[in-house]
Amino acid sequence: MTIASTFAAAKADDRAVLVGCMPAGFPTVDDSIEQMIEMHRSGCDVIEVELPYSDPVMDGPVIQKASDIALANGVRTRDTLKIIEAVSSAGATVVLMTYWNPIEKYGVDAFARDLAAAGATGLITPDLIPDEAQEWLAASDKHDIDRTFLVAPSSTDARIAMTLENCRGFVYATALMGVTGARTAVSSQAPELVSRIRAVDPDLPIGVGLGVGNGAQAAEVAAFADGVIVGSALIRCVLDAPDRSTGLDRLRALSAELAEGVRGRA
Amino acid sequence: MTAPSLPDLAGHFGKYGGRFVPEALVKALDELDAAYRSAKADPEFQARFQDLLLNYAGTPSLLYRATRLSEALGAEILLKREDLNHTGAHKVRNVLGQALLAKRMGKPRVIAETGAGQHGVASATAAALLDLECVVYMGETDTERQALNVARMRMLGARVIPVTNGSRTLKDALNEALRDWVTTVDTTHYLLGTAAGPHPFPEIVRDFVGGIGVEARAQVLEMTGKLPDAVAACVGGGSNAIGIFHAFVGDEGVRLYGFEAGGDGVETGRHAASITGGTVGVLHGNRTYLLQDEDGQTVESHSISAGLDYPGVGPEHAWLHDAGRASYEPVTDAEAMAAFQLLCRTEGIIPAIESAHALAGAAKIAPRLREELGRTPTIVVNLSGRGDKDVHTAGAYFGILDKDVVS
User: Fold this and answer.
1) Fewest CB atoms within 10 A around its CB: which of B59, B176, B254, B398?
2) B161 CB near a chain A CB, below 8 Å?
3) Which helix (H) or strand (E) holds B215?
C-alpha cells in the first residue's frame, strides 16, 4: 500500500495509523527483518526502517544504542535496502528514515532508484530541511518516493507552509522540543502544532512522534493526529529483553497494545 | 582577486556550508543570524567586544620575529603570538564574542563542546566573566586524558558532562551538545568552538577570530614594509586558520597554507586530515570535507593533538581548497613533534601541539618558497596556542618524564 492509501484506509475506519520504527540491522540483519515483520503482523500499519548512522543528533539514548549495535555488527547501506525489500515483500508499507550523509554518499538519484526498487514508499529526513533539498526533490519526484520533512513546535508559520509544500505522503510533527525517546506524558505542544499544520493544509496526513510509549499515549495522540509514530519503546522491547524470544513476545505485545490504542482515540 | 563576500545569505561557500539540521533548530539559527547582523552593525556591541579583547584578553597579540628559528629554517619566520592571550589560545576571541551575543539575545545559559578542553575552558572563562550558566560536553575518553582541564572548567563554575556514547571524543561531545540545544533552545546559546557547524556559525566564528589576520597584516607591513610571502596555520576545525587567513585572502601574492593533522601518515588511515585524506559529505550541520567510509559513516580521526583530532573541517576551508586560494597539506605527529622541540630549543617558547603542526608546515614550505622566489621567504606562522596543556603528552612522547608523574 502507498502512504496515501494507508492513511486513507485508517481514516475510513475512524482511527489513526500506527507507524513503528526499528533500526535496520539491529541487532543483526535477519533479526531486524523478523522484528519488523512481527511488528507488521501485530498491528503496525507502517514500518519505519531507520538506517543506522554514526552521528544521530536527533535521536535519544535508545535509538543511539540500537544503531551502535547494528553498526558494530557490520550493517551496510545495501543491507538496509535488502531489509526493506524483505519487509515490504511480507506486505508491510515501508518508509525509511535516514540522516542525510549516507544518501549523499550513495548518490542521491541512485539511492532514490534503489529505494523505490526495494519497495519503500517514502523517506523521512530528520536533518534535511527543504531549504537544502533541491537534489532530493528532483530524485524523489523522478522515482516516485514520498517525502516526509519534519516540523517542530518552534517552526514559524511561514516555515510550516514551506515545509508542507515540499512534503508528499505525510508530514512528521515532532511533538516536543527534544530528541527521540519515550516520555511519561504526551507533550502539550503536540495538539497545538497539529492544528497549526491543519490550518495551512487540511489534507496532508500528520504523523506525530517523539515520546509515545504505550497504548494509552497512542490513544491520546490518535485523538488529534492522523498517525502515531513509536520508536524507542518498541526498540527497548528487544534491547532490554533477557533473550530473543522474550524480546519478540514483548515486541508483539506492545505493537498490539499500540494498535489498539490508535483505534481507541481517547 | 578581491576578498569574496561569502557565505551567501543561506550560509553557502560555493557548494559547502549550509544547514543540515533538525527543523527544531532552524528558528534558533535564524534568531542567532538576526542577532549577529544587528550586533555587527551596532557600534556599542563592537566597542564592548573590542574593549574585552584589549583589556581582558590581552590582544592585539604580538607579531614576533623568531630569529633563531628563522636561521634554522632558512626563512624569515614571524610568529603571531596567540599563545600569549588570556587562556592561552586564539579561542578566547571567539568565546568572548559569542558570550556577548548570548547576553544580547537574553539567553542566560551557554553550552559548549570540547575535545582537549581548551574551548571548554575558554567558554567557562567567558561565562564566568559575563555571569552565564555554562555546561560543557566532553567525551569521556577526553575527560580522562585531560583531567586538569576538567578541573579548570569546574573552578570557573562550569558543569562538565562526560559523553559516554559513540567514540566518546569530540565529535560525540558535539552531537550531545546539539541534542541539548534541541531541547533547551529557548534559554540556551550553543557556543560552538570552531568555524564549522550549521550557518551562521562558520561566519560568526570567522568574524570573531578574524582580528588575528587583521592585526597580523598591519603588524607585518609595519615590521617589514611589505606583505609576507606566505601565511601558515594548523587546521582541525579550522578557526585559527580562517582567523588569520581571512584578512589576506584578497592579497593575491600571499600564499595561504593550512596544515592538517596527518597522524601516523595519511596513507595509514590513522589521521585527522579531512581535506587531504577525506571526501565531501555532510557532518554536524554543514557540507564539507570529512573522514567517512564508503557508506557515509563518520570514521574516527587520529592525531597526537587533541585540538586537531576531529573528522571534519570548516566549510570555508573546503571552499578555499577547491578555489585553489589556500593549500592544505598533512603534517604527521612525528613532524609536528620535531617542530615542537625545535621551537622550544631555539626560541624558548613551548607551543601547543596544534600550533606545532603549523611550524612543521612552515619548515616544509621554506625551502620550496626559497627556490621559487630566489630569496629568503617571509612566512607568518599562527602560533595559535601555548603548550602548557601538552606538557604531559610531549613529555611522554620524548621520554623525558620521571616516573610517577601525575597526568
Assistant:
1) B398
2) no
3) helix B211-224
> B230-235 and B286-290 as β-strands: parallel, antiparallel, unpaired?
unpaired
> Model confidence over A115-155: pLDDT tens digits?
999 999 999 999 999 999 999 999 999 999 999 999 999 99
Q: What's the N-to-C CA distance of chain B in angstroms?
A: 49
Indicate whether B405 pLDDT > 70.
no
Give yes or no for a contact between B325 and B14, defined as CB atoms under 8 angstroms apart: no
Query: pTM of the entire structure?
Result: 0.96
Helices H / strands E in chain B, number of each: 16, 14
- Opening angle at CA A69, ends A66 and A73, nearest 5: 140
- Residue B34's identity, in one-letter code, is A
Question: For residues B114 and B193, what is the distance between their CA atoms, to the nearest angstrom?
Answer: 7
Residue among B61, B70, B82, B91 flagged as catalytic: B91
Cα separation of A173 and A201, whole Å? 13
Type of residue numbered A152: A
Give the integer Cα–Cα distance in Å for A205 and B315: 37
Establish if B170 touches chain A: CB-CB under 8 angstroms: no
pLDDT digits (tens, 9 = 90+) for B255-296: 999 999 999 999 999 999 999 999 999 999 999 999 999 999
Instruction: Give the Å distances, CA to CA, from A26 to A63, B267, B298.
Output: 10, 33, 19
Question: Phi-psi region for residue B205, left (φ > 0), alpha (ψ -120 to 50) or beta?
Answer: alpha
Q: What is the per-residue pLDDT across B194-213, written as a single tens digit (0 to 9) for each?
A: 999 999 999 999 999 999 99
Residue B196 touches chain A, beta carbons under 8 Å: no
Closest Cα in chain A, distance from residue B160 (Å)? 19
Whole-number Å distance between alpha carbons of B350 and B146: 18
Burial class (CB in 10 A: 0-12, 13-18, 19+), A193: buried
Q: Where are the alpha helices (DSSP H) in B74-192?
A: 91-104, 118-129, 140-145, 147-155, 170-184
Neighbouring C-beta atoms of residue B233, cutoff 10 Å = 33
State how beta strands B133-139 and B109-114 pair.
parallel
User: Cβ neighbours of residue A12 under 8 Å, at least 6 residues apart?
Assistant: none
- In this prediction, residue B3 has a pLDDT band, given cuts at 50, 70 and 90, of very low
Instruction: Identify the pLDDT of residue B321.
Output: 98
Q: Tens of pLDDT along A13-54? A: 999 999 999 999 999 999 999 999 999 999 999 999 999 999
Grid cell, residue B301, equals 580521526
pLDDT over threshold 60, residue B23:
yes
CA distance B210 to A68: 39
Q: How many residues comprise chain B?
A: 407
B20: chain A residues, CB-CB within 8 Å: 100, 127-129, 132
pLDDT for B116: 81
The answer to whether residues B195 and A98 touch, using CB atoms and an 8 Å cutoff, is no
pLDDT of residue B274: 98
Tell me how crowded residue B119 is: count the other CB atoms within 10 A of its CB.
Answer: 30
Considering only CA atoms, which of A58, A59, A179, A163 is closest in space to residue B21? A58
- Considering only A163-167, B143-147, B189-193, which range has the smallest mean pLDDT? B143-147
Nearest to B298 among A55, A127, A129 (CB): A55
Q: Is the pLDDT of residue B145 over 90?
A: no
- Phi then psi for residue B181, to 5 deg, are -65, -40
**CA neighbor of B236 nearest in space, from B216, B258, B255:** B258
- The closest of B306, B393, B379 to B341, measured between CA atoms, is B393
Cβ-Cβ contacts under 8 Å for B200 (sequence gap 6 or more): B11, B29, B32, B33, B36
